[in-house]
Amino acid sequence: MAWDTERTKRLLLEAGAEEFSAFGLAGGRVDRIAAKAGVNKERIYQYFGKKEAFFSAVVESELTASLAAVELSGDGVSAVADYAGRRFDYQRTHPAFTRLLFWEGLELKTPVAEETRRKHAQALVAGARDATGLSEADAQELLITVITLVDGWVTLQTADRLFSPPSRPDDRDSRRREFIVMTVEAATRAAIARTDRT
C-alpha cells in the first residue's frame, strides 16, 4: 500500500497544534507530536524541516483555517460587533489557534506568514472603514482592540476565575461573548462619533 503523505502531514499538523499550543515552541516535543500522530518523528523533519519551521507550518495551517472561517462583512456598527462575536465563537471552538498566536508573539521575532497576514489585516481594515466610515488609523485601532478582547479571553482563563464566580462554561462563555460584543459596539460608536466631530 502506498504511503499517504498528505494524511501524514495533516496528522502531524493536528498533533503539532495540540502540542505547541500547550507548551510553545521551546517546550513542545517532537517525540510527543510524532507519538500522538502515530508517525515516526523523522517524517516531521522530512516534511517540514527543523522544529521552528514545523512550528511555523502549524501556525500557518491554523491561520489559514481561521482566515477562511471569520470575515468582516456588512454595514455600520453591527458589522464590527458581529465580526467580534463570530471571532469569539471561532476562538472558543479552536482555542489552539489563539494559544499558538500568543506563543508566537513570545518566542519568535517575526510573525509566521507575515505577508499573508498583513494582506488579511489590510482587508479587515478596509472592511471596517467601508462599514463605518472610520479613518484608516481608527479602523486599525478598532480591529486591534477587537482582536485583543477576543483572543485575550481564550488565554486569560485564570484571570476569569478571580473576577467572576464559578459557573457552567456555556453560561460563562455566553455572558463573556455578550459583553465583548457590547463593548465593541460602544467602541465603534465612539470612534464614529469622534470621526464625525473632526
E-strand count: 0
H/E series: HHHHHHHHHH
Roughly how much helix do the residues carry, as a percent range?
over 70%
Overall mean pLDDT stands at: 90
Major sheet description: none
Secondary-structure-based class equals: mainly alpha
- Strand percentage lies at under 5%
Global shape: globular
Instruction: Flag low-confidence runs.
Output: none
Total helices: the number is: 10
Give the termini separation: 69 Å
Computed over alpha carbons, the radius of gyration is: 19 Å
Structural commentary:
With 198 residues, this protein is mainly α. 82% of the residues lie in helices and 0% in strands. The protein contains ten helices and no strands. Helix 1 crosses helix 4 and helix 5 runs antiparallel to helix 10. The longest helix has 29 residues. The termini are far apart.
List keywords for this structure.
single chain; 198 residues; mainly alpha; globular
Layout of strands and helices, then pairs:
Layout: H1 5-27, H2 30-37, H3 42-48, H4 51-69, H5 77-93, H6 95-107, H7 114-132, H8 136-155, H9 157-163, H10 169-197
Task: Write a short abstract of this structure.
This protein has 198 residues and is mainly α. The protein has helices at residues 5-27, 30-37, 42-48, 51-69, 77-93, 95-107, 114-132, 136-155, 157-163, 169-197.
